[in-house]
Amino acid sequence: MATIQLKNVTKQYDNGFVAVKDFDLDIDDKEFIIFVGPSGCGKSTTMRMIAGLEEITEGDLYIDGKRMNDVEPKDRDIAMVFQNYALYPHMSVYENMAFGLKLKKTPKDEIDRKVNEAAKILDLETLLDRKPAQLSGGQRQRVAMGRAIVRNPKVFLMDEPLSNLDAKLRVQMRTEISKLHHRLGNTIIYVTHDQTEAMTLGTRIVVMNRGVIQQVDTPKNLYDHPDNMFVAGFIGSPQMNFVVCDVIENNGGIYLVFGENVLHVTDERAKTLKEEGYVGKRVMMGIRPENLHDKKLSRVQYKDVIKAKVSVYELVGSEVYLYFDLNFSNMVARVSPETEARVGDEVELYLDSSAMHLFDLDTEKAIR
Amino acid sequence: MNKYPYKIQKLFQKIQEEMQSNITLRDNNDAASSVSLWLNKKEVFLSSDQPGFEPQLKMIAYVIEELWSESFENLLKRSIEGNLDHDEWQLFEEKMDAEEYTLLLIQTDRACDHLYSTLARLLETVLCETVYQKQIIALLPKKVDDIYIKEICGTLESELFTHVSVVSSSFSSLEKIKQEYLKMKEKLHLIMKYHPTTNSHDEIWLATLVENLDEENTEILKQDCAIETLDLLDEDLMQTVHLFLKNHLNIAETARVMYLHRNTLIYRLEKIMNITGLDLRNFEDAMKMSFLLMLRKK
């Protein structure tokens, strides 16, 4: 059982730099929560404050309802796995995993039980006598995980643990970590800058930017209903397309206009734009690359068609990315590899207006 | 035996006298009884011609390993003080024989019982504790990179639950050890004072300048550069200052890491210029800003 509450937590360094501002979050027991954001957004600092490696300037941290601000890191019942770690070179895998417990003066039979259990979970049983130099990158990473698991902590804190692995191994270890969470059932806080890791691992994701939480939600909700332009642009690859549009009213209908293109909006959205006073103003329209369809291949007919001149054709196996410039914006459409469009071609793309996102240009917040 | 420290030589002499057993250190385990031990990263075998002598050999091996590390701990400690005599230098050089060396100076932000033993196992090299500040010095017979230092920090932090600062210096002649140690001591002091939250040493030379300014000049500079205007920068602007400097005055890169539009960033830089009089796109002004940020902490 481990719930974590961060209440208005702020970290300000001596030089005035505010790394984390007013961070408010409740983490449930057994949750796998991801902190994601660009470099310098404060995600690692937040994790280090939970660990006790950084002091909290303002606000409160609770683990299982107990205030932790002044509790020594070693007494917080946490275990950490970092991006950069070293194994003890002359110790066996068993000894590497047991070392932390030995320091805590854990009885020998208990150490033995915990190391063997962890080795079983991590599939390291046959490697327990090996030295680090005899292990592969993935196995070494598992030993580092094992060092954390044997502590049997309430909370695991993982700071970009897979960043140093090659792409193939990273995918493999991602699955391992996910399985590990199901087996152990501990609360996990996982820091990453990689949105694929965030989307595939987390039960909930905290998107951060410039020290401030932008949105906390499930991976699906973040993708489908981003609260602001930052989240919309950060989650999803290729990125969401953004175009500035004028909101106009014509014969009682509401339309979005950019360049020569006129887009329909759903009735519900038209109502919101009217009520919120956006008619006659400009808004930012966002559309994900998969919501632009090659007209020639589409089985569904959409109301809106845009014409684009393909500047880059990128085949990535199961799909093709078509890059083009539209009204001074770089855009990309994700279409089927059966597309006949190539560089230089003028292509007609359906725009699924029911899937568009609208944002206020000043506040960058979603218009809903 | 004369390649081993004096205390170990004495121990062997005593054992042979008292135990009437021919105990030797060999490169192989061909003797009737033998146990392995690691001296200077090399596995050697403490051997006896008597069968079934392993329990006694195990005890002796333990004492030898302890004496071994203690002897070199003393040699390292005295080498950085410049107090080794000729014979000791020779022994020290033989033990550490390498083409390049790295000296690490390690400090934690809270008292930590197991720092020494953890480091000893992690680095497998000679360590010693400094008298002041409870810093630990480690001498590695190789050159190491920043990733290695980060790995050491990561492991110490996750095993010992404490913030760790490490400075390192690589050099090719052991004779430089005292000189390098003194430089690193100053460097660590500056890191603790000016960068307590980061292990990055990029701006350490600037910190050295600030630290060595006398009071009169500090005041003159503070007034000359209108240091008080920094207090007028709000959090967003302050963050822009830090990230723009960190990203080498590169507008595109700073805008990218901040997820800002280029024009928003330029607007902010102009706002900073209006408040502080410093245009960070200009190298001299950016330099002044870095200097002022550090001067504030003096």
Give a verbal description of the structure:
The complex is a heterodimer of chains A (368) and B (298). With 368 residues, chain A is of the alpha+beta class. Chain A has helices spanning 43-51, 93-103, 108-121, 137-149, 167-184, 195-201, 219-224, 229-234, 267-275, and strands spanning 4-12, 18-27, 32-36, 58-63, 66-67, 78-82, 155-159, 187-192, 204-209, 212-217, 241-250, 253-258, 261-264, 282-287, 292-294, 304-315, 320-326, 329-335, 346-351, 357-360. In chain A, the strands form four sheets. In chain A, strands 6-7-8-3-9-10 form a six-stranded mixed beta sheet, sandwiched between helices. Chain A has a five-stranded antiparallel beta sheet with strand order 13-12-11-14-20. Chain A has a five-stranded antiparallel beta sheet with strand order 15-19-16-17-18, with no helix packed on it. Chain A is elongated, with a radius of gyration of 25 Å. Chain A starts with a strand and ends in an 8-residue tail after the last strand. Chain B contains twelve helices and seven strands. In chain B, helix 2 (54-81) crosses helix 3 (86-95) and helix 9 (235-246) packs across helix 10. Chain B has helices at 6-19, 54-81, 86-95, 115-123, 146-160, 177-194, 204-211, 215-224, 235-246, 251-258, 262-276, 283-295; strands spanning 23-26, 33-39, 42-48, 101-108, 126-129, 136-140, 164-171. Helix content of chain B is 54%, strand content 14%. The interface between A and B is large, with 42 and 42 residues.
